[in-house]
Amino acid sequence: DEDEDEDDNSEKNKKEMDPDHRLLIRSATILLNSADASVICGVCSLMMNIAPLAEARQCAPAVARHLSNYREMQYVVLANVSTMASKRPSMFRQYVKMFFVFWDDPEYIRELKLDILAHLSSDSTIGPILMELFSYVHHYDPKFVHQAIRTIGRCAMTIPDTAERCLHMLLRLVSNSSETVVAQSISVIRTLLQRNPKEHVKVIKRMSKLLFKVKIAMARTALVWIVGEYREMIPKIAPDCLRQLAKTFREEDVEVKLQVLNLAVKLYLSNPRQTALLFKYIMDLSKSDINFDVRDRARMVRALFFKKKSAGGDEQTEAWKARTKTIMKRCFLWAKPVPETENPFKAREPLTLGSLSHLVQHSVSGYQSLSEFPEVAPDTSVREEPRAFGEDDDDVTSKKPKRGFYDFNETDSDSDTDSDTDSDSDTSSDSGSDDSSSSDDDDSSDDPDDTERKPRKKDQEEEDSSGSSDSDSDSDSEEEKPKKPKDSKLSAPTPAKPAEPAANLLDLFDNDESGNNAPGQGQAPGGGGVLAGLSFEDTFISGSAISKGPQMAPSGGLEGKKGVHAKVRATRSGPMGVLLKESLGEGLGVWFSFVRQDSIYSKAMTVVELKFQASVEVRDIHIDNVNAPGVQIRPFDRIPVLHAHQTVTSKMHLDFKGSERKVKFNICTTDRKYSVSIIPTPGDLLRPHIMSVEEFDNTKKRLTGMSQTQFETSSFISSEALAKQIGKFADVAVLASNPSDPDVFRMAAEMRHESTSLVLITVRDQGNEMQVTINCDDMLFSGRLEDYLSKVVED
Q1: Closest C-alpha among 27, 36, 23, 88 to residue 62
Q2: pTM of structure
Q3: What confidence score (pLDDT) does residue 536 get?
Q4: Hey, what domains does the chain have and what are their CATH numbers?
């Protein structure tokens, strides 16, 4: 086995490996932890060329990290892996499953992964690879299906021991319902039969029977070739196949006609007794065919087989026939060579890994190929000797004299050192005189408020300079301490004033029980009369802030006062539904919900919020082919690009004209269209309406009889819970409760397309069950709303 041989070689290499070689591999292995794909590709290229199998296999986990990266980076990594797998497949055979094709992989990624799977096929990996390739038959791309079937044939030709297993897999595909799959499978089976046809006589008989079922030209051409090539194994079936093909000769395609013509010649040469008449009949049909290729082929064959008698006699004619027959047997009955394995990326193999030429599959300007291994190993003494742990550079070069940064020779260093010493001494003397003069000036100062500046110490040390052996000079450094001034008075720091406490602005709005402001407690005097009755709490209904107004005293009623309920509030949006499933959208999923707010285009329009999310990158998302008769629609803005695992929200505006009409449209991308539809519920066609309890009761008295419907439910323990549930599925305003009947909840709304049409909903607790009453001018809409609410509250 190839893996076992390589393992044995790696064990020998470990014992015979040069220390420098081992050091290079160990240093490069650390770089496999890098997050840069180019570094990983470079290390993998190095490991493939110089590393044993044990170290080379460490590249596979590093490569796997970049197979979920951007598609461009995946392509570069897989292109390098494809070449490495063709030369050293043992590097990646343990990790064959990470090269399986995902449903959202682009075409160029799928081709590379199929090529890698063909290279990694062996006795140990052929099982999962064949099962994976067999599952690709159901892919939506027919081109990819054909490539997967051809990959099965490549696996069989790469490993002859697995040819039988691959052949049985292809025979299973012959019974597939798709004609293109059957045609491609037959074409691959034809290639596999050429390797050892004598062991597959049953397969050849089965292929000949398919000749009368398959209708695709490519498959029929392959089947006719199989019958003619292996005619001796099926001596009774081959003449009958020619007879059946002669009946349908005129309706066949051009390539099938040419192959039938070849079949007739082969059978006439091998079995003229049974096929002579059929051969002449097919020649006559070909002579008058509409295609000139078929006519020319038939005329050539007729000229060879049906030559007129010459004046030389029968002996010359018989000799000519025997010679012609020998030549025709060499042309038509000669053994065909076994086809070789086709590698679509074979041009990459001689090019250097990681180069631009390797990626584009041809040599570009400036390309340099990788040099060959040297025949003689380089001298190891050119590399620096390894140092002991903790050893410094000074310890290594202690025997060498110390030099300055600019010391190029000994003479220059001596002169430079002497000149530097002289200049330092002059500078120190000058600085000392300046300091003494400055101290005298400070002593003569009479201003007591001046702060004395303490002079700094100036220490000058003269370094010992080692010069040449002719002259050595030493210079001593002198320290001068400036005199401290006698009268020095430090000015005392001015104490900072304590910060005044800042007034709390929120206290301006606080009132005492009597409604008067108490000065001195952070309140604005005289402000109680202006701000006493204000409340800074807003309730959001339909996307707009509605003030609750001044709070009422407990003893007062709510007659004539408009407001909303303090506990039960309307939701921002309705329940979310699925517009496009990710499985149907090939990774793109769309969800929708009706938002409880007024449209910016018209109050009659309903706002629909769309949520787009994709597991793959999707470009140019827009709406097209809207089919909504009677519905005014404002589509969402075009989305240029939606990256993988990104969520984008957009809004549509629709005017349903007060009815639950289905709106059909297409969500389009760059190359796909998905048909979807939206149907509003009766609760989404409403808009909240704020009114007082007195107005609600008076309007309800007017909307009785046929305008009133009701239903009961026992699924809730309180009327408040039922009111909250109705508020989730209907865009209504829950009005303020009446202190006389706090368990009764009143909800009011108006139709979006007609604001004068009111919808009143009353929720009342009757002990064992809850009663919901709906009052509306539109009796049909009232009935639909009742059916809808009765279902959602029970669910």
Answers
A1: 36
A2: 0.47
A3: 36
A4: 577-681 (2.60.40.1230), 685-794 (3.30.310.10)
